[in-house]
Amino acid sequence: GVGDATFRVVLLGDPGVGKSSLVGIFRREQDRETQEQQQQVMYECTLTVDGEDTSLLLMDTSESEVRKLTGSSDSPMRIGHAYIIVYSVTDRSSFESASELRIQLRRTRQAENIPIILVGNKTDLVRSREVSVEEGRACAVVFDCKFIETSAVLQHNVRELFEGMVRQIRLRRDGA
Ligand code: GDP
Ligand code: MG
Predict the structure, then answer these.
(1) 124 CB under 6 A from ligand 1?
(2) Which one of 18, 58, 67, 115 is CB 3.0 to 4.6 Å from 121, fit for a cystine?
Protein backbone atom coordinates (compact mmCIF):
# COMPACT_ATOMS: atom_id res chain seq x y z
CA GLY A 1 0.00 0.00 0.00
CA VAL A 2 0.92 3.67 -0.01
CA GLY A 3 2.19 3.31 3.54
CA ASP A 4 5.01 1.08 2.34
CA ALA A 5 6.19 3.50 -0.34
CA THR A 6 9.51 5.25 -0.09
CA PHE A 7 9.31 9.01 -0.25
CA ARG A 8 12.04 11.05 -1.92
CA VAL A 9 12.89 14.01 0.28
CA VAL A 10 15.17 16.56 -1.41
CA LEU A 11 17.34 18.99 0.55
CA LEU A 12 17.90 22.37 -1.09
CA GLY A 13 19.80 25.46 0.00
CA ASP A 14 22.91 27.56 -0.48
CA PRO A 15 26.35 25.94 -0.20
CA GLY A 16 27.58 25.71 3.38
CA VAL A 17 24.22 25.99 5.17
CA GLY A 18 24.48 22.44 6.53
CA LYS A 19 22.47 20.18 4.19
CA SER A 20 25.07 17.39 4.14
CA SER A 21 25.54 17.69 7.90
CA LEU A 22 21.81 17.30 8.54
CA VAL A 23 21.59 14.25 6.27
CA GLY A 24 24.87 12.93 7.67
CA ILE A 25 23.40 12.58 11.14
CA PHE A 26 21.12 9.88 9.81
CA ARG A 27 23.81 8.41 7.66
CA ARG A 28 25.98 7.65 10.67
CA GLU A 29 23.11 6.35 12.74
CA GLN A 30 21.32 3.91 10.54
CA ASP A 31 21.45 4.55 6.86
CA ARG A 32 22.71 2.98 3.78
CA GLU A 33 23.95 4.86 0.78
CA THR A 34 21.80 3.84 -2.13
CA GLN A 35 22.93 5.91 -5.06
CA GLU A 36 25.71 8.23 -5.97
CA GLN A 37 25.64 9.85 -9.36
CA GLN A 38 26.22 13.39 -10.56
CA GLN A 39 26.90 14.36 -6.94
CA GLN A 40 23.36 13.40 -6.01
CA VAL A 41 23.72 11.37 -2.89
CA MET A 42 20.76 9.48 -1.53
CA TYR A 43 20.39 7.86 1.84
CA GLU A 44 17.59 5.54 2.71
CA CYS A 45 16.30 5.58 6.23
CA THR A 46 13.25 4.26 8.01
CA LEU A 47 11.77 6.38 10.77
CA THR A 48 9.29 5.16 13.32
CA VAL A 49 6.93 8.02 14.03
CA ASP A 50 3.79 7.65 16.13
CA GLY A 51 4.24 3.87 16.07
CA GLU A 52 4.37 3.59 12.28
CA ASP A 53 7.40 3.05 10.02
CA THR A 54 7.99 5.32 7.04
CA SER A 55 10.91 5.01 4.65
CA LEU A 56 12.53 8.16 3.35
CA LEU A 57 15.06 8.50 0.58
CA LEU A 58 17.02 11.58 1.61
CA MET A 59 18.55 13.31 -1.37
CA ASP A 60 21.43 15.63 -0.62
CA THR A 61 22.15 18.15 -3.36
CA SER A 62 24.92 20.55 -4.28
CA GLU A 63 24.61 23.95 -5.88
CA SER A 64 26.43 22.93 -9.09
CA GLU A 65 24.22 19.91 -9.58
CA VAL A 66 21.00 21.85 -9.04
CA ARG A 67 22.17 24.43 -11.58
CA LYS A 68 23.33 21.81 -14.08
CA LEU A 69 20.03 19.93 -13.98
CA THR A 70 17.75 22.97 -14.02
CA GLY A 71 15.11 22.45 -16.68
CA SER A 72 15.81 18.73 -17.09
CA SER A 73 13.39 16.05 -15.96
CA ASP A 74 16.04 14.86 -13.48
CA SER A 75 16.08 18.25 -11.81
CA PRO A 76 15.90 18.02 -8.01
CA MET A 77 13.04 20.50 -8.36
CA ARG A 78 11.02 17.88 -10.20
CA ILE A 79 11.82 14.55 -8.61
CA GLY A 80 11.10 15.17 -4.92
CA HIS A 81 7.97 14.07 -3.12
CA ALA A 82 8.86 16.53 -0.37
CA TYR A 83 11.42 19.28 0.24
CA ILE A 84 13.61 20.57 3.02
CA ILE A 85 14.82 24.09 2.22
CA VAL A 86 17.78 24.98 4.43
CA TYR A 87 19.35 28.34 5.25
CA SER A 88 21.86 29.31 7.90
CA VAL A 89 20.66 31.66 10.64
CA THR A 90 24.18 33.16 10.44
CA ASP A 91 23.89 34.02 6.75
CA ARG A 92 21.19 36.40 5.57
CA SER A 93 21.87 35.81 1.89
CA SER A 94 21.16 32.10 2.39
CA PHE A 95 17.80 33.12 3.90
CA GLU A 96 17.04 35.14 0.77
CA SER A 97 18.08 32.19 -1.40
CA ALA A 98 15.66 29.99 0.53
CA SER A 99 12.80 32.29 -0.52
CA GLU A 100 13.94 32.13 -4.12
CA LEU A 101 14.07 28.34 -3.97
CA ARG A 102 10.53 28.27 -2.57
CA ILE A 103 9.31 30.49 -5.41
CA GLN A 104 11.12 28.35 -7.99
CA LEU A 105 9.63 25.21 -6.49
CA ARG A 106 6.12 26.64 -6.56
CA ARG A 107 6.60 27.61 -10.20
CA THR A 108 7.95 24.18 -11.17
CA ARG A 109 5.35 22.16 -9.28
CA GLN A 110 2.38 24.51 -9.53
CA ALA A 111 -0.64 22.31 -8.98
CA GLU A 112 0.94 19.98 -6.46
CA ASN A 113 0.54 20.27 -2.74
CA ILE A 114 4.09 19.24 -1.83
CA PRO A 115 5.24 19.07 1.79
CA ILE A 116 7.94 21.69 2.38
CA ILE A 117 9.80 22.50 5.56
CA LEU A 118 11.90 25.66 5.86
CA VAL A 119 14.90 25.06 8.12
CA GLY A 120 17.05 27.68 9.87
CA ASN A 121 20.24 25.77 10.72
CA LYS A 122 23.29 26.63 12.90
CA THR A 123 21.37 27.93 15.92
CA ASP A 124 24.40 27.03 18.05
CA LEU A 125 26.27 30.01 16.56
CA VAL A 126 24.37 32.41 18.79
CA ARG A 127 26.67 35.39 18.46
CA SER A 128 26.79 35.35 14.65
CA ARG A 129 23.04 35.08 14.15
CA GLU A 130 21.77 37.33 11.31
CA VAL A 131 18.23 35.98 10.90
CA SER A 132 15.87 35.94 13.88
CA VAL A 133 13.52 33.08 14.64
CA GLU A 134 10.59 35.48 14.11
CA GLU A 135 11.78 36.29 10.58
CA GLY A 136 12.10 32.62 9.78
CA ARG A 137 8.64 31.88 11.09
CA ALA A 138 7.11 34.83 9.22
CA CYS A 139 8.77 33.70 5.99
CA ALA A 140 7.28 30.23 6.39
CA VAL A 141 3.82 31.76 6.85
CA VAL A 142 4.20 33.81 3.67
CA PHE A 143 5.44 30.82 1.71
CA ASP A 144 2.92 28.42 3.23
CA CYS A 145 5.32 25.84 4.61
CA LYS A 146 6.40 24.44 7.97
CA PHE A 147 9.34 25.90 9.87
CA ILE A 148 11.93 24.66 12.32
CA GLU A 149 15.32 25.83 13.57
CA THR A 150 18.09 23.24 13.98
CA SER A 151 21.70 22.76 14.90
CA ALA A 152 23.31 19.92 12.99
CA VAL A 153 26.41 20.26 15.16
CA LEU A 154 24.49 19.87 18.43
CA GLN A 155 21.98 17.52 16.75
CA HIS A 156 19.31 19.82 18.11
CA ASN A 157 15.84 19.45 16.52
CA VAL A 158 17.21 17.27 13.71
CA ARG A 159 15.09 14.25 14.61
CA GLU A 160 12.12 16.60 15.08
CA LEU A 161 12.74 17.96 11.57
CA PHE A 162 12.59 14.54 9.92
CA GLU A 163 9.71 13.37 12.09
CA GLY A 164 7.84 16.53 11.11
CA MET A 165 8.50 15.68 7.48
CA VAL A 166 7.07 12.18 7.95
CA ARG A 167 3.94 13.67 9.54
CA GLN A 168 3.53 16.13 6.65
CA ILE A 169 3.82 13.29 4.14
CA ARG A 170 1.22 11.26 6.03
CA LEU A 171 -1.20 14.18 6.20
CA ARG A 172 -1.13 14.38 2.39
CA ARG A 173 -1.39 10.61 2.07
CA ASP A 174 -4.35 10.39 4.42
CA GLY A 175 -6.04 13.29 2.66
CA ALA A 176 -6.40 15.33 5.83
P1 GDP B 1 26.14 22.01 2.73
O2 GDP B 1 27.06 22.69 1.76
O3 GDP B 1 24.82 22.69 2.81
O4 GDP B 1 26.01 20.54 2.52
O5 GDP B 1 26.79 22.26 4.18
P6 GDP B 1 27.69 21.27 5.06
O7 GDP B 1 26.84 20.26 5.73
O8 GDP B 1 28.80 20.76 4.22
O9 GDP B 1 28.22 22.26 6.18
C10 GDP B 1 29.04 23.37 5.84
C11 GDP B 1 29.87 23.76 7.07
O12 GDP B 1 29.00 24.21 8.11
C13 GDP B 1 30.64 22.59 7.65
O14 GDP B 1 31.88 23.08 8.10
C15 GDP B 1 29.79 22.13 8.80
O16 GDP B 1 30.54 21.54 9.82
C17 GDP B 1 29.17 23.44 9.27
N18 GDP B 1 27.86 23.24 9.90
C19 GDP B 1 26.81 22.54 9.43
N20 GDP B 1 25.78 22.58 10.27
C21 GDP B 1 26.19 23.33 11.33
C22 GDP B 1 25.56 23.74 12.56
O23 GDP B 1 24.41 23.43 12.88
N24 GDP B 1 26.32 24.54 13.39
C25 GDP B 1 27.61 24.89 13.09
N26 GDP B 1 28.26 25.63 13.98
N27 GDP B 1 28.21 24.52 11.96
C28 GDP B 1 27.52 23.75 11.09
MG1 MG C 1 26.75 19.39 0.91
Answers:
(1) yes
(2) 18
Provide the residue type at 16 as one letter.
G
Burial 119-133 (b: 16+ CB within 10 A, else e): bbbbbeeeeebebee
Taking only the tens place, the pLDDT of each residue in 88-136 is: 999 999 999 999 999 999 999 988 889 999 999 999 999 999 999 999 9
ipTM surpasses 0.90: yes
Q: Where are the beta strands (DSSP E) in the chain?
A: 6-13, 32-37, 40-49, 52-60, 82-88, 116-121, 146-149
Q: Is 19 in the pocket of ligand 1 (CB under 6 A)?
A: yes
- Give CA–CA dist 109/114, Å, rounded: 8
Amino acid 89 reads V
Instruction: Give CA–CA dist 61/116, Å, rounded.
Output: 16
